[in-house]
TrEMBL record:
Keywords: Cell membrane, Disulfide bond, Glycoprotein, Glycosyltransferase, Golgi apparatus, Immunoglobulin domain, Lectin, Manganese, Membrane, Metal-binding, Repeat, Signal-anchor, Transferase, Transmembrane, Transmembrane helix. Its cofactor is Mn(2+). Residues 725-812 form the Ig-like domain. This is Protein-UDP acetylgalactosaminyltransferase 7. Signal peptide: none annotated. Belongs to the glycosyltransferase 2 family. GalNAc-T subfamily. It comes from the Eukaryota. It is found in: Cell membrane; Golgi apparatus membrane. The lineage of its organism: Eukaryota, Metazoa, Cnidaria, Anthozoa, Hexacorallia.
């Protein structure tokens, strides 16, 4: 090799770099301030202590159950349900269809560390109020949160659950929710009058709580075992501590419950993206035990607990923030800076459903931006500019009035944000300022398109119309020539024309992430020499050969670089970048490796493998494993070459290689003869080898987030010693006795160790092997469709060139029984079909025992007769709960409603009808006493217009009669208008009613003609009024049937009656059980109830005088059983089910008689509803009737008393005085004077009458002469 000046320069640079590297390695690593951020526990005691298992919770009294999702297992939807699934996602953001199938109190795995289960907690802890905010939440997810909190919380520590409804619009979250939660107890529902968002709603919940401690939970959580005491203990020890449970993951599609790492801390980057960091090995090593809290710079936000008074002292949440977003930063910064602290509690576990998307919109579209701006302005001091540098869109947002928040910070004497970064978040947040060359959109002027991340963190970038809103189009061009989006960078793997630009985690090692923005506005990839192009205005940019094309011109918003020192990154992260510095000096560039190799375990006799990215170097935060699985007696020798891994003192915490073997069931480290004390390897080592003691080996490679190296090359070979075979395993589970069931396909394993590999053959003692047997090369004997006659002793032989071995196994083949030994049941109480009070008298119990005895047989050569287990948690509370457990194996579910000819249930399970019902009883509530009488009274009052018209016409006819007859009949119709009209009204009214007393009658001709007309009119008017009353009576008595159409009725949820009501267009509400049906019907919440006739006759709740049977509806209603097994299971086989169906068909008459003897079906009432209603018009039990009778009797007695008092009091006294006065008058002078006066009066009356008669005669004569004179004058004038 010829040394040129350039090569000498590079060699000198390399030597200098090695010296610097030696100094840095020996000086030691930078030590962060984490020592001040310790996880010290406390030894304080708060009184008597108990294990979590000893706390009294409702879950301790729950019976274990089976069903969808139990144990936190996933629940899958079928392809046919895809449309319903998508509807659920659209409405709720997760698979509500699956959630509704899972029990509200499903069991989940206890995901706590074993040490948490052994730790004791104080009994007397402060009580907690759990605040749950919801807006249009799904029914089952919301109530599962409530149920699991009640189920798994010690009752004496749970003060209440405060549910805050943030103006939900869904009907199931209104009265239905209130009625449901009332039964649970300890629940308070608070509703907002407008949409206020999560932040303000939580404040409302806190204000309405009374517990000493507040626990905030989201509305789609599941509390795990022992979740509450660990949280309360920490706050009880220090009221200025806020605590967060470990948040486990619940899959939004399958609702699978998955445990998460409890040893993490929350943090953020300078775009305000929430991040989580695992504890470093150093921090884990300093921890005393697994139960210690982990102090966290930032909380996740949704789930945490805090002392209620301290929460109020801290100003609660910022009232100027909207909806949600950023509140976790505000409360976290405030806690740390103002004297509090934040801890994650590993021993408290709460599962959380992470939505696929947010299913609702926000009233304020820029809510999160406003919240971020308020947090930055109030709490981040000068560091807010770092945030604005990465998020320039925040600068244009109006934060609103923040004076009260600043005053709060001053009043609490809070520390600076610099203190927070240096003492709390120093190891999780970058605290060195990194200025940018450019920040903002990358625009191609020719197409007016901008590069867009497309909302991804991996994959290729795209091209979209420039929108100027930052977001997905906000990129940073750094001083090491990266184009950065959050923590990902532009990365080019393929150096060909048309290559896409990917987003890949930034490694700050140049290579394929180094781009130059040239003076002529091109973006040139330095490693490939190609330029970024809009590529004919496609939907993504590509790399092309650099040219003058307008597609390669890009506009960036450049930063002012005049004040930035050109070596601003000098010595910053020097150890991490020193290798890159050396590579650059030697003219090499780093190429980003793809991923760790993903391959099956090595099984060949020899081969090679390398670290990812070798020989160019490996990435930070990389974990790779290589597995070897060969013969147990073999050994694996691994030879490492070109070994360069970041050095450290113990090779334990930074980058390292570790080789382990599993020879006895546990993994143990394998050392190297060259380094016998090392269990892990790092640094720059010479060639060394590691040899295992067995054939199961694993090589692990790990790198941390700092300095890297070139990696390693390795080769391996399998070392085997020749030896005779030794049979190490024979039979299932290596047991020398194997039990099987006839007709199964059976394999008997025979495993032998030895080299060369053994050859195998089998024999059967006392007979020959089955003709269809098959012996595989690995020694396995396969016997398809075995029979009971195949029972016997089988012997395996293993031979090789070094020797042979043999061993026997006993095979027992039992009869294949038609049914399992124990047939499990899944039922609910529905008398008389199944009656929990008298289960032996239940129809289904008697019939099923008889039917299964016939079809299952004795199975004497198997497990014996089958038994049906009706206990051990088989009974459920409702049909809905029974349906949740239909799929349980070896289980039958009943009584399930269906139709006579149904053979399938829910398109998934086999159904067999057993019992037919005589029909559906429509039970209604009797009218309250006096209802009919009140209706009549109202109808009479309702006829007031006719009555008023009658009175007016009678008065009018009286006036007309007076005018027509007063001259002819002045005695009966006086000529005075008032007196005459009154007499006329009396005549008209009695004539109209056809009473006709005769005391008034017309005399004149015209008056009599009018009287005839009025009589006819009166008949019509009277008939109209009478008709109104009669029609009302008829309508009341003839309204005999309540129609189902549009009527509000109640029935058992999802029962036959429920579906029947829906088919008849009734407004049906589902109930959980019959007791609820009867009680709500008696409360008159519904017009009627639909109940099976047998059931209604059996349940005493319906034997109530306030209820009556309206009608018995003839309907094809049957009850049967559902087989829960999948195809192939004993109870699902067609032969068994055919047996059952045939037996039911053949014994139909006997079954009917059996049912008839066990039931008392409800009968129709003897009298029709019309008869009952007509007889009830004047019901003696009616309050109206009673009040009328009592009023009349009272008035009768009062008037009778008044009459008696009149007769025997005043009138008797008055008669005595009158008689005495008359007697004195007769005997005295007054009598004579009165007699004279009477005589004078009679004489005067005669004179007056004589004068009247003479005057009338003279008047007639004068009128006659006047007429004669008029006639004469008329004749005279004519002449």
């Amino acid at each position: 090799m010829r040394f040129t000046p350039k090569r000498f320069a590079r060699l000198g640079l390399l030597i200098f770099s090695c010296i610097v590297l030696y100094i840095i390695v020996n000086v030691g690593r930078h030590k962060s301030n984490l020592d001040t951020f310790s996880n010290d526990d406390t030894n304080e005691q708060l009184g008597p202590m108990l294990l979590i298992d000893d706390f009294e919770t409702p879950e301790k009294h729950k019976i274990s159950r089976s069903g969808p999702g139990e144990g936190g297992e996933p629940v899958e939807t079928k392809p046919a349900e895809e449309s319903k699934k998508q509807e659920a996602y659209s409405e709720y953001g997760f698979n509500q269809l699956v959630s509704d199938r899972i029990s509200l109190e499903r069991s989940i795995k206890d995901t706590r560390h074993d040490e948490c289960k052994k730790r004791k907690y104080p009994v007397d802890l402060p009580k907690a109020s759990v605040v749950i905010v919801f807006h249009n939440e799904g029914w089952s997810t919301l109530l599962r949160t409530v149920h699991t909190v009640l189920l798994r919380s010690p009752a004496h520590l749970l003060q209440e659950i405060v549910m805050v409804d943030d103006f939900s619009s869904k009907e199931h979250l209104k009265k239905k929710l209130e009625d449901y939660t009332t039964k649970l107890g300890k629940i308070k529902i608070v509703r907002t009058t407008e949409r206020v968002g999560l932040i303000k709603a939580r404040v409302i919940g806190a204000d309405n709580s009374i517990g000493e401690i507040i626990i905030f939970l989201d509305a789609h959580c599941e509390a795990n075992k022992g979740w509450l005491p660990p949280l309360l203990e920490r706050i009880a020890l220090d009221p200025h501590t806020a605590v967060c449970p470990t948040i486990d993951f619940i899959d939004h599609n399958t609702f699978q419950y998955k445990p998460m790492d409890p040893y993490i801390r929350g943090t953020f980057n300078w775009r305000f993206d929430y991040k989580e960091r695992s504890l470093t090995p150093e921090m884990m090593a300093r921890r005393k035990d697994a139960t210690q809290p982990v102090k966290s710079p930032v909380m996740a936000g949704g789930l945490f607990g805090i002392n209620r008074l301290y929460f109020k002292e801290l100003g609660q949440y910022d009232p100027g923030m909207y909806i949600w977003g950023g509140e976790q930063y505000e409360i976290s910064f405030k806690l740390w800076q103002c004297g509090g602290q934040l801890e994650n509690i590993p021993c408290s576990r709460v599962g959380h459903v992470y939505r696929h998307h947010v299913p609702y919109t926000y009233p304020k579209h820029d809510a999160t931006l406003v919240n971020f701006r308020r947090v930055a302005e109030v709490w981040m001091d000068e560091y807010k500019e770092w945030l604005y540098d990465r998020r320039p869109d925040l600068k244009s947002v109006d934060p609103g009035d923040i004076s009260d928040r600043i005053a709060l910070r001053n009043r609490l004497k809070c520390k600076s944000f610099r203190w927070y970064l240096e003492n709390v978040a120093n190891d999780t947040v970058k605290t060195a300022y990194e200025p940018l060359r450019a920040n903002g959109a990358i625009r191609n002027p020719a197409s007016n398109l901008c590069i867009d991340s497309m909302g991804r963190r991996s994959g290729n970038v795209g091209l979209q119309a420039c929108h100027g809103q930052q977001g997905n189009q906000a990129f940073q061009y750094t001083y090491i020539k990266e184009f950065r989006f959050d923590e990902t960078c532009f990365d080019v793997h393929d150096y060909v024309s048309g290559a896409k630009v990917d987003l890949f985690p930034c490694h700050e090692m140049k290579g394929n992430q180094e781009f130059e923005y040239t003076k002529d506005k091109k973006i040139r990839h330095l490693t490939s020499g190609m330029c970024l192009s809009a590529a004919g205005h496609n939907d993504y940019p590509v790399m092309e050969t650099c040219s003058s094309s307008a597609d390669q011109i890009w506009e960036l918003t450049m930063s002012d670089m005049s004040d930035i020192p050109p070596l601003y990154r000098k010595f910053m992260s020097m150890k991490k970048h020193l290798a890159i510095f050396i590579l650059t000096a030697l003219g090499e560039n780093y190429i980003t490796p793809k991923v760790c190799p993903d391959r099956a375990p090595f099984k060949d006799d020899s081969g090679e493998f390398t670290s990812p990215g070798s020989p160019k170097g490996y990435l930070n935060n990389t974990r790779c494993t290589w597995d070897f699985e060969v013969a147990p007696l073999a050994k694996v020798q691994i030879i490492f070459k070109d070994f360069d891994v970041e050095p450290s003192k113990d090779c334990a915490y930074y980058d390292y290689i570790k080789v382990t073997e599993n020879c006895d069931g546990s993994w143990k480290a394998v050392t190297s003869p060259a380094y016998p004390t090392k269990q892990t390897f790092c640094g720059n080592l010479t060639v060394f080898n590691v040899t295992s003691n067995c054939g199961r080996v694993r090589v692990e490679f790990k790198s941390d987030d700092s300095m890297t190296g070139w990696g390693f090359n390795a080769s391996y070979k399998i070392i085997r010693d020749k030896q005779a075979p030794k049979i190490t395993c024979l039979g299932r589970d290596c047991n020398d006795t194997q039990y099987e069931i006839a007709e199964n396909d059976v394999q008997i394993d025979c495993r032998a160790e030895g080299y060369p590999p053994a050859q195998f053959y089998w024999t059967k003692h006392g007979g020959s092997l089955p003709f269809n047997k098959r012996i595989e090369f690995n020694g396995t004997l396969r016997l398809p469709k075995i029979k009971e006659s195949d029972t016997g002793t089988y012997e395996c032989y293993a031979n090789n060139s070094q020797g042979s071995a043999k061993k026997t196994v006993v095979l027992h083949v039992y009869e294949r029984c038609t049914c399992p030994k124990v047939i499990k049941t899944n039922w609910y109480s529905l008398p008389p079909y199944m009656n929990e009070q008298n289960i032996d008298k239940s129809i289904f119990k008697q019939l099923l025992e008889e039917i299964f005895s016939k079809c299952c047989g004795n199975c004497s050569n198997g497990h014996g007769p089958s038994t049906i287990d009706f206990g051990n948690g088989a009974m459920k509370n409702s049909l809905v709960e029974v349906k949740d457990s239909l799929a349980a194996p070896d289980t039958i579910s009943f009584p399930i409603p269906g139709k006579k000819d149904d053979t399938e249930y829910q398109n998934s399970f086999k159904f067999l009808s057993i019992v037919s019902s005589p029909g559906i009883a429509f039970i209604v509530v009797n009218d309250e006493p006096g209802t009919s009488a009140r209706a009549v009274f109202k109808s009479v009052l309702g006829g007031w217009p006719v009555l008023l018209l009658t009175m007016i016409m009678a008065l009018l006819s009286g006036m007309i009669m007076w005018a027509l007859d007063t001259w002819n009949n002045p005695d009966e119709f006086p000529r005075s208008f008032i007196k005459g009209t009154g007499e006329g009204f009396w005549w008209a009214f009695v004539t109209m009613t056809t009473v006709g007393y005769g005391d008034r009658s017309p005399r004149g001709y015209f008056a009599r003609i009018f009287a005839i007309i009025w009589v006819l009119v009166g008949i019509v008017i009277t008939s109209i009024f009478t008709g109104v009353v009669t029609t009302s009576l008829t309508a009341i008595t003839l309204s005999t049937e309540t129609s189902l159409y549009g009527t509000t009725v109640i029935a058992i949820q999802n029962s036959t009656e429920y579906k029947f009501g829906l088919n008849k267009n009734a407004k049906v509400t589902g109930a959980i059980n019959l007791e609820e049906v009867a009680n709500r019907l008696k409360k008159r919440e519904f017009k009627g109830a639909l109940v099976d006739t047998y059931v209604a006759g059996e349940v005493k709740d319906f034997d109530d005088p306030s209820l009556r049977v309206s009608k018995i509806i003839d309907y094809d209603s049957h009850y049967g059983i559902v087989f829960g097994d999948e195809s192939g299971a004993p109870l699902a086989k067609s032969k068994f089910q055919t047996c059952m169906a045939d037996y039911v068909s053949e014994t139909k008459a006997d079954i009917f008689k059996r049912v008839e003897s066990l039931t008392k079906p409800l009968e129709k009432p003897k009298d029709s509803e019309a008869v009952e209603k007509s007889s009830g018009l004047f019901d003696a039990d009616s309050e109206l009737f009673k009040s009328s009778v009592y009023t009349c009797l009272g008035m009768l007695l009062f008037l009778a008393a008044c009459g008696i008092i009149w007769d025997y009091g005043y009138m008797r006294h008055w008669r005595g005085h009158s008689e005495l006065d008359n007697l004195e008058m007769i005997n005295g002078p007054k009598y004579e004077l009165a007699k004279v006066n009477m005589d004078v009066m009679d004489s005067l009356m005669e004179e007056v009458q004589l004068f009247y008669n003479n005057w009338n005669r003279r008047l007639d004569d004068m009128l006659l002469r006047h007429e004669e004179e008029k006639t004469m004058v008329s004749k005279y004038n004519t002449k």
